[in-house]
Structures are given as structure tokens and as C-alpha cells.
Amino acid sequence: MTPEKTVALAWALAGTLATAAVAPHPAAAVSFEIYTDRAAFDARLAGDVKVVDFDDIDTAAADPAAFPPEHYRSGKGAVIVGKGGQLVSRDFGLPDDFAPVSSPNLYAPGDNETDVSFYTGFQPTAVAGVGAVFIDADYPLIGPSSLTVRTAGGAAFSTGTVSGSDRSQLFRGIVAVDEGSGQPTPAIVAAHFVTGSGYIGDDSGEGTGLDDLVFGTPRGLVPGEVCDNCIDDDGDGYIDRADSDCDHPADGGGAGIGDPGTAKALGKCQKALAKGGSTVAQVMQKLLGDCIAGVFACHQTKPGDPACVAKAKAKCDKNSAKVGGLGTKVIHAINKSCAGLSPTAVFDARGLGFDAERNDCELYGVTLSDGSSLSLCLGHQQICRATQLVSRAYPRARELAEEIDVANGLPCLEAGADGNQAGLADPALVKCQAAIAKASMTFTSKRMKAVAKCLDGAFTCLQQKPGNDACRRKVAGKCAKSAATVFGGVDAPKSLAGKAAATIAKACGAIRFSDLLDAGGLGMGAFGSDCAAAGIPTLDSVADLSRCLVHFQTCRSDRLLEKQYPRAFELRAIAYGF
Q1: pTM above 0.85?
Q2: What's the average model confidence in pLDDT over 22-45?
């Protein structure tokens, strides 16, 4: 029996990346080698190996403990999806059979299959080798265990059945080799582990554990659109979920659910989802931003003072509890507002449209089935997007979060600048950073509020006045009045973006520009390549920095709304005409 698994909405909520459809690489001559000795596997990859030993997960309070698929993406570069969930335990209740290779924990899925994919940041990548230790794989006739790898072109290669004696610990690894050079090459985009016949804790079948997942450092970029990086990766003019490579938001074809009795209830639920999601996102930005700002200020005003950093960490720990408490309240409010809605109303594209979010929710280990799972998934999504917003407002966010030991629970916190926990001893940088963070949050919150109001109006037309063109024209007319303010660029002084740029220019304009780019200063230079990909070819001025920031915060705030309104693309077309 699979144990009951619950995921609390707290500081350690994991983020998501809607996996990009993979365009195949040009055909290459690649062969595969199987390794039964881990040392030989490591040597073949010249020691350039990442290790996931699962020992960072606390199993003292709950054993087994569940973790979200994205837990190891940012730190290690792996997304792990187990059939029935991802579980970690000290022995899965059978200490005589399941001893971890590295203490205290080992891993098993909730059933018998696990898929692993690889990333560099949010970019799908490939690796040169994959391996793991199979624990107690001793009944192959009941349930054979194995490892299979796949290339971007679809080629697959397997170890075949892995089997040994009772309580055995058997390493199996596969390395991809370029047949021309004879050297390992990053050609593996995914790995599939089969561990027996079912859940490891069910002693009636063949349960097998895994420990010390190892793989080459992710390097080979997989072509195609990355569905969550706010860049047009494949140059086709479409970004993220607007690209056909990605899971598209729901589209009800301009129709409502068709039930007058349900229409008002849908509107109430949709507004609760939007309000709750935005509240979580805004509070997360504020609290996590305060954490990062505190550590940043230490390095700029009190360099080398551990007491200052310790104080900032203590504040951050308190903020963690606040996020968890808020999440519980939001989930309760959403459940109350959405109670009584049928699954059709919630998931159908003509209703709320949440069927389009199933794949995204699965990355958090949440299977959409009812209002409770819906609100839990939304909480994960909003916290993920909020941490992405913080990553752009504070380019050193990940470095400073790692310094105070909170980064591991925030897989959506993007890699940026790394100032090696040092600063430039310039208090003006603290004021500049605070102004950027405030401008960013003000811009995104006001923009989202204005757009949400228009999306609500369009949703009301679809559900309560289907086919009523007058209703749509009225909504479009109201939304047109605010469009210039909401969608205007940084060069439009009265727009939200223009006001954000003015705030940043006032606080940061007098600071030596190189200090804004320096990793020991603000660290904005770390986003140079991203800015170039977004159409800002050089970072030569504060205005350039503002343009790049606004681009990514606009995109991220849109992603937040798309999670609150699965029909966002369709509703926006009604409200704004695009």
C-alpha cells in the first residue's frame, strides 16, 4: 500500500517548468557503455559527476517523506518524477532489506517507475552518463529492475534486468560515447528506472530501492522552446506557452459552461483563485525579498560581520513561518469559494479550464482531482513565480539565499550573480537595490491587478452572458482606457513601466555603473545574455537595466496570471484584443 503523502504549503514549496517539447538533434554516431562499478563510471566521466544522495531530506519527523519533482533541479540539475510520487526513507519499514548506500536515506517511487530529466537552470539539457545503486533487487521473476536512457533523437538503451542476492547493492550506470572521438558525450536527455513490481513498502511483491543517483554535469542544450524562461528560444516569434512546443493554456472557444446555475459560482471561484494566488505571490515576494535584502545590506555596510548575517537569517526563518500560515488561510478561502463546483466546471476548457494545468501540477507532486488539490497546486505555482520575480529584482538572490540556507527549498530561485559573499562597501548600493525591488513589486502588483479586473470582466461575459457581444464590447472599452498605462514601455512616463524606470533612475543613476553590473555590487551583469536574448543587446545604462527588468517582470507576472486564470490567453483577447 502506498503511504499517505501530504505536501504542506510552506517555505519549501517547489517550482515548476512546463517541459519543452524536444526537437531532435542531428543524427550523431553514439554508442553506450554499461558500468557495474561506480568508481569506473566516475572515472569514465573524469569525475565530472553530480550526486543526488537524498540525504538532505528530513526523515526524522516523517518517514517516508515526500519531495516535489523539481526539488533537485536548481542545485543538481535533475527533475525526478516517480510513479505514485517521490519518497525518501531510512529503510521503508524493512531495515533488514533496505540499507542506504549513504546514510541516512534511500529513495523509491510510490509505485515502480521513476523518470529523470536534466536541466541547466530552466533549460532542458543532456548528460553523458546516468547511474544509481539498486538496493535489494533479488526477485527478477516477480518484478525485474532496470535502467533505460533516451537521447533527444529518441534512441533508447537499457542495462537489461538488474538482479542480485538478498539485500544486494548493485550499481548500474550507462555512459554515452561519441564513436568518432571515443569520449563521453552529453547525449542522454532522460533516464527511466524500473524498481521491481510495485511500491517498496509492500512486502507482497518485489520492491527495490535506489540510492546515490549519479549523472554527468548537465551540459548539452536541447533545442526547442523552453516553456518558462521568458525568451523566444527557437526564434519563431512566440515565447513560452504561446509557442506550440509548449502546453497551451485552456481555450474554451469563446463559450461558457452553459449552465446558468453554475455560471455565478464559477465567477466566485475564479475571483477567489485570483485573489488568493496574488496574495501568496505578493507576500512571498515581500518576505523573501526582505531576507535577501538583509544579507545584501550586511555585505555592503558591514562586510565580514557574521553577526549581521546571523540576524538576517533569523528574520528569514520567521518569514518562512508566515508564508506557511498564509498558505493555509488561502487554501481554506479558495476551498470555501469553490465548494460545490462539479469536476466538469473546474477542469473543462469552457469552465475554469484547469485541465490545462495538469502537467504543470504534476511537477509538484499534485494530481488535480478536486478543489483541495487545485488550491494546493496554485499555491505551488504562485510561490514559484514569486521567487522568479525575486530572482530578477535581486540578481544575487540565489547566492545570498544559499548563504543563509534557504535556497534548497526554493527550486525556482534562478541562478544569477555570485559575489562570493562579499560586497563593495557602498551603502548607496543598498538604497539602489531597495528601489529596484520596490519598483519591481509595485509594477507587477499594479499590472496584475489591472489585468485581472479585465480578465474577470471577460470571464463574466463568457459564463453569465454567453454570445452577448454588447457585454464583450463594454469590457473591451473599459480595458482600452487603461491599456496605455498597463502595457506602455519604460519610455512612456505615465505607464507603470515608465514609473518603475524613473524610480530606479532616481535611486541608482548617480552610482558608478560598473558597480551595478559587478557581482560584488548589484550583480546585474549576470543577466546580460538573457537581456540580449530579450532584445536588449547591451547593458550600458540604467535605462537598459530597467528595460530588461521590465521585460522579465512583465513576463513573470503574466505567468502568475495564467496560473490563476487557465483561460488567460482567451480572456485577454476579449478584453484587450490581443
Answers
A1: no
A2: 78
